[in-house]
Write a sequence for this structure.
C-alpha cells in the first residue's frame, strides 16, 4: 500500500482524547456564567439587537447570524464550558489531491474544545485539551491532576454583545474558519502541505445550525509549494462543531484478546501504588428500548440504531450489494441481544436536507477516483470511546483490485472469475464482502489477521465446509478468496463473509449490562473471554508487517493452518492460469495490456505465497494470554515446519520457476505493473531477480537469524538453527559448483543474491543504504503492488504488533554477523578451489564473487 505522509489517512481517528477536569488555576481567570453587578456596564446590551438586525439567522445548537461577510455565534450560558468536538472533513478536492489519494468524505482532524467566558477581559476563549485523565472527586491528588493537565488556549474572541437578559454572548467567528494554523479547520497543515490559505481566494460558504451540531462549509485555496509556475490548490472543507453528551457513555475496557480500536484513559486516585492506565474500546452507544425484556434474553431494538446512508452518487446497480454488506452485521448484533441494530438507507437525489458531511449522518461516500481502495474510519467521543459517526469512503476503482484478486486466486476453479469484466452479480458478491469488511471497521473492529490460520487447510477443499464457513472465521482478516480449493474439489462458495469471531467480538463489545462504570462490567466481559479462549476460531491476532512478520499465523491473504501446504495448492492453481492468459484477456483486435497485467498479478501472487511460507522460518507464535487460560505466550515454530518452508523456497522460488517466467506470452508482452500515470513493463527475468532479492534479503535478515538463535538457546536440538538454515541454502545453491559444473544465468543470479544478503548484513554502511533503497521501493508498491484495501486511519492504527518483541541484542556481539561472515569465508574457500571450473561465464561469475567477498571482509 502506498503511504501518504500526514494525510487524513493517518490522522482521521488517531487523535485519542478523553476527559479531564477543569484546572483549579482557571477558577479566578475564567468566570463561568457568574453574573456581576457591573455586567450591564461592560458591554452595551442594546448592541446585540443592533448587530443581528437585518442579519440572516439560523437557530439550533446555538443561533448563527450572518451579516454581510461576517458570521456570529450566539452562545447561551448553559453551553459555555460544555465539551464540544470539532470534526473536519474534506468535501471537495481538485485533481492534485485526488491523485494523492485524498478525497471527499475523509476526516482530517478532530479537536475537543470548550468555549469559556471571561467577562473582565471581555473575551470568550476556545480551550483545547485531550481529555484522557480521570480522578476521584475529593481525592487530594485531584488538585495535582488539575495543575498538571491544564487546557490550552486555542483562540479567543472579543465579546461583541450580550443578550438583554445576559443569558447569551455574541462573538464573531470568521477568523477560526479561515484555514490558518490557529483556525478550527487547518486543512493544508493537517494533510501535510504545510502552507496557509490565500485570503483573497478563501471564504466561508455557509454556516448552518442544527439541534446538536453546527456545520460550517468553507472554500480554501493555497499555492502548491515547489511548483515551477504559480499553481493554486482549492478544497472545500466541512467543519462540524458537535455538542458531546453531558453524561458520557459508560466505557468498556479494551482486552488484548479481542481486536478493537481504542482510546487511552488514565485513572488517578489517592489509594494507588501505580497509575491505572487503561484503553477504552470505540463502539456505538446501543441501549435497549425495553431493558426488562433485554435482560430476560429477548431480542430488543436499540433506542438509537446505527444507520448508514448511501451516497446518492453511488451507481444504482451497486447499492443493493453495499446495503447487503451493511445488513449482514445484523446477525452479529443479534448475538449481543439487539435486533435491527444496524440499518442502511438510500437517499433521494432531491433530498435538500441531507448533507453527507453532516455528522448527524453516517454514510457510504462514493469517490470518483482511480484509487483502488475503500476505507471505514469513525469519529468518536474521546471521553468514552462512543462512536458518533462513521464514514465509509468507497473509491470507484476498488473493483479493479477485486477483479484482479478474484481472477488470480479463483480463476482456476470459477469460470465467472476469468474475464476482463465480470457480470454484475459476480462483482456484486465481492462488493458485498468489501462493504461488510469496511463496516466492521466502522463498528470499532481492527483487522484480525490470525483468523484464517485456524481452519484446517484441507477443509477449504471441502464444498460443504466452504459453504458453511467461507474462508476464515472473521471477515476482518484479509482472507480474500479461496485459492486452496482445486478444480476437482467442486467448491462453489469462494468469498469471505462474517464469521464466528465477528459475532463473538460484537457481542463482547456491545452486550448491554446496565452498569454505571467500566470497572463494574469487567467480571462479565472477562467471563465471556474465558469461554471464548476454548475455541481457537475466536482467536485474535493483530496485523504485522509482511516482510518483518514474526508470527506466521498473522499474515495478510493467507489461508489455512499450514501455509506451506496452502501455498503449494495455490501454486497448482497459478500454473493452471498461465496457459490461459491470452484466452481470458484478449479478443481479436485487442492489444496485450490486460494480458501483461494478469501475468504480473500472477507473479505477485506467487511472490505473496513465498512470504506466507518464509515467515515460518524463525517464526514465533505469539498468543494473547492471561493467567489461568493454560496457554503459553511464545512458541517457536516447530523444526519440521521451518525445514519444510525452506524446502518450499528452494524448490519454488530459488529454483527458477520456468512455468511462470518462460512463457511464450512474453514474446508478446512483458509483465505490466501499473503506476499512477503510466505502466511499467519488466522483463520476466528482471521481475524474477527483483522478487528473489527481497525474499533472500528477508530470509537472512539479522532479526530473523536472532530469533533462530534465541530458539536454539531455548530449545537446543529441538530447534531449527540458523546454522542449519545457512547450510541448507549453501548445499542447494552450490551443489553444481561443488561438482565443477557450468552454472546457467538463473543459478548465477541466485548465488549473487545469497552472497549479497550475507555481505549486506556484515557491512553496516551497505546495510543502511540497501535497506533504505528497499524501503523506498516498497513504499512505491514495487514489491506487491497495492494488495490492501482499507488504507485508512483505522488500518493505519493497525499495521504492527501491539507491542514490540525484541529478539536481537547488541550488534557487536551478534551471532548473526558471525554466522554470515563464517559462511562468506566458507564460500570464499570453495570458490578459490573452483574458480577455473565451468564455462567462461561461470568462471567470470566466481571471480566476481571472490572480489565482492574480499572487499566486504577486508575493507
Amino acid at each position: 500500500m502506498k503511504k501518504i505522509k500526514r494525510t487524513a489517512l493517518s490522522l482521521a481517528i488517531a487523535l485519542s482524547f478523553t476527559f479531564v477536569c477543569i484546572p483549579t488555576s482557571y477558577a479566578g481567570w475564567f468566570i463561568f456564567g457568574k453574573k456581576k453587578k457591573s455586567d450591564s456596564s461592560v458591554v452595551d446590551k442594546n448592541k446585540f439587537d443592533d448587530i443581528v438586525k437585518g442579519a440572516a439567522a439560523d437557530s439550533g445548537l446555538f443561533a448563527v447570524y450572518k451579516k454581510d461577510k461576517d458570521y456570529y455565534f450566539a452562545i447561551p450560558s448553559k453551553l459555555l464550558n460544555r465539551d464540544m468536538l470539532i470534526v473536519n472533513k474534506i468535501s471537495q478536492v481538485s485533481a492534485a489531491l485526488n491523485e494523492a489519494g485524498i478525497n471527499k468524505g475523509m476526516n482530517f482532524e478532530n479537536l475537543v474544545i470548550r468555549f469559556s467566558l471571561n467577562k473582565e477581559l471581555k473575551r470568550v476563549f476556545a480551550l483545547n485539551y485531550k481529555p484522557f485523565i480521570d480522578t476521584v472527586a475529593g481525592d487530594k491528588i485531584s488538585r495535582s491532576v488539575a495543575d498538571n493537565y491544564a487546557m490550552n488556549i486555542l483562540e479567543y474572541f472579543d465579546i461583541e454583545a450580550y443578550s438583554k437578559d445576559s443569558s447569551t454572548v455574541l462573538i464573531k467567528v470568521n477568523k477560526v474558519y479561515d484555514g490558518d494554523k490557529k483556525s478550527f479547520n487547518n486543512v493544508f497543515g493537517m494533510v501535510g502541505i504545510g502552507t496557509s490559505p490565500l485570503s483573497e481566494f478563501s471564504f466561508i460558504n455557509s454556516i448552518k445550525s442544527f439541534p446538536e451540531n453546527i456545520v460550517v462549509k468553507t472554500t480554501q485555496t493555497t499555492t502548491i509549494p515547489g511548483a515551477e509556475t504559480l499553481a493554486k490548490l482549492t478544497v472545500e472543507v466541512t467543519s462540524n462543531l458537535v455538542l458531546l453528551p453531558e453524561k458520557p457513555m459508560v466505557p468498556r475496557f479494551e482486552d488484548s484478546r479481542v481486536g478493537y480500536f481504542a482510546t487511552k484513559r488514565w485513572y488517578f486516585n489517592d489509594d494507588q501504588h501505580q497509575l491505572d492506565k487503561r484503553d477504552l474500546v470505540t463502539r456505538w452507544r446501543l441501549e435497549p428500548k425495553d431493558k426488562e425484556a433485554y435482560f430476560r434474553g429477548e431480542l430488543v431494538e436499540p433506542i438509537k440504531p446505527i444507520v448508514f446512508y448511501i451516497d446518492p452518487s453511488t451507481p444504482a446497480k451497486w447499492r443493493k450489494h453495499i446495503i447487503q454488506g451493511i445488513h449482514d452485521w445484523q446477525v452479529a448484533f443479534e448475538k449481543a441481544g439487539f435486533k435491527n441494530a444496524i440499518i442502511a438507507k438510500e437517499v433521494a437525489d432531491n433530498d435538500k436536507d441531507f448533507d453527507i458531511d453532516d455528522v448527524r449522518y453516517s454514510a457510504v461516500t462514493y469517490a470518483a477516483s482511480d484509487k483502488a481502495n475503500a476505507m471505514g474510519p469513525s469519529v468518536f467521543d474521546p471521553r468514552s470511546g462512543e462512536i458518533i459517526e462513521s464514514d465509509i469512503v468507497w473509491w470507484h476503482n476498488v473493483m479493479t483490485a477485486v477483479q484482479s484478486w478474484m481472477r488470480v486466486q479463483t480463476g482456476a476453479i470459477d469460470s465467472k472469475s476469468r474475464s476482463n469484466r465480470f457480470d454484475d452479480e459476480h462483482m456484486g458478491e465481492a462488493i458485498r464482502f468489501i462493504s461488510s469488511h469496511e463496516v466492521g471497521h466502522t463498528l470499532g473492529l481492527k483487522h484480525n489477521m490470525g483468523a484464517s490460520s485456524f481452519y484446517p487447510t484441507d477443509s477449504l477443499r471441502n464444498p460443504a465446509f466452504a459453504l458453511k464457513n467461507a474462508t476464515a472465521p472473521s471477515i476482518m482478516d484479509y482472507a480474500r478468496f479461496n485459492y486452496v480449493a482445486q478444480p476437482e474439489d467442486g467448491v462453489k462458495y469462494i468469498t469471505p463473509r462474517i464469521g464466528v469471531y465477528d459475532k463473538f467480538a460484537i457481542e463482547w463489545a456491545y452486550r448491554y449490562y446496565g452498569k454505571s462504570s467500566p470497572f463494574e462490567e469487567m467480571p462479565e466481559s472477562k467471563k465471556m473471554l474465558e469461554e471464548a479462549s476454548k475455541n481457537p476460531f475466536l482467536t485474535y491476532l493483530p496485523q504485522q508487517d509482511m516482510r518483518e512478520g514474526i508470527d506466521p499465523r498473522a499474515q495478510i491473504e493467507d489461508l489455512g493452518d499450514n501455509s506451506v501446504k496452502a501455498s503449494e495448492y495455490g501454486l497448482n492453481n497459478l500454473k493452471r492460469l498461465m496457459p490461459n492468459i491470452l484466452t481470458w484477456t484478449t479478443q481479436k483486435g485487442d492489444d496485450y495490456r490486460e494480458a501483461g497485467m494478469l501475468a504480473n498479478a500472477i507473479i505477485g501472487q506467487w511472490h505473496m505465497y513465498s512470504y506466507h511460507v518464509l515467515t515460518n522460518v524463525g517464526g514465533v507464535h505469539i498468543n494473547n494470554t492471561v493467567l489461568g487460560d493454560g496457554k503459553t505466550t511464545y512458541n517457536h515454530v516447530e523444526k519440521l515446519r521451518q525445514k519444510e518452508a525452506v524446502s518450499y523456497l528452494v524448490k519454488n522460488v530459488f529454483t527458477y520457476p520456468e512455468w511462470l517466467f518462460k512463457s511464450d506470452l512474453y514474446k508478446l508482452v512483458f509483465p505490466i505493473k501499473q503506476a499512477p500515470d503510466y505502466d511499467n513493463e519488466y522483463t520476466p527475468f528482471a521481475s524474477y531477480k527483483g522478487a528473489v532479492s527481497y525474499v533472500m534479503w528477508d530470509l537472512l535478515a539479522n532479526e530473523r537469524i536472532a530469533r533462530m538463535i534465541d530458539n536454539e538457546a531455548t530449545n537446543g536440538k529441538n530447534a531449527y538453527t540458523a546454522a542449519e538454515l545457512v547450510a541448507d541454502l549453501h548445499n542447494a545453491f552450490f551443489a553444481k559448483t561443488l561438482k565443477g559444473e557450468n552454472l546457467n544465468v538463473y543459478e548465477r543470479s541466485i548465488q549473487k543474491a545469497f552472497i549479497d544478503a550475507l555481505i549486506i548484513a556484515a557491512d553496516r554502511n551497505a546495510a543502511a543504504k540497501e535497506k533504505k533503497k528497499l524501503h523506498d521501493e516498497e513504499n512505491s508498491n514495487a514489491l506487491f503492488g497495492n494488495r490492501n484495501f482499507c488504507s485508512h486511519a483505522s488500518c493505519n492504527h493497525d499495521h504492527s504488533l501491539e507491542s514490540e518483541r525484541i529478539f536481537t541484542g547488541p550488534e557487536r556481539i551478534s551471532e548473526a554477523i558471525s554466522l554470515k561472515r563464517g559462511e562468506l569465508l566458507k564460500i570464499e574457500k570453495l570458490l578459490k578451489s573452483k574458480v577455473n571450473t565451468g564455462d567462461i561465464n561461470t568462471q567470470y561469475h566466481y571471480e566476481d564473487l571472490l572480489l565482492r567477498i574480499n572487499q566486504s571482509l577486508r575493507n
Summary: The radius of gyration is 30 Å. The CA atoms of residues 453 and 561 lie 5 Å apart.
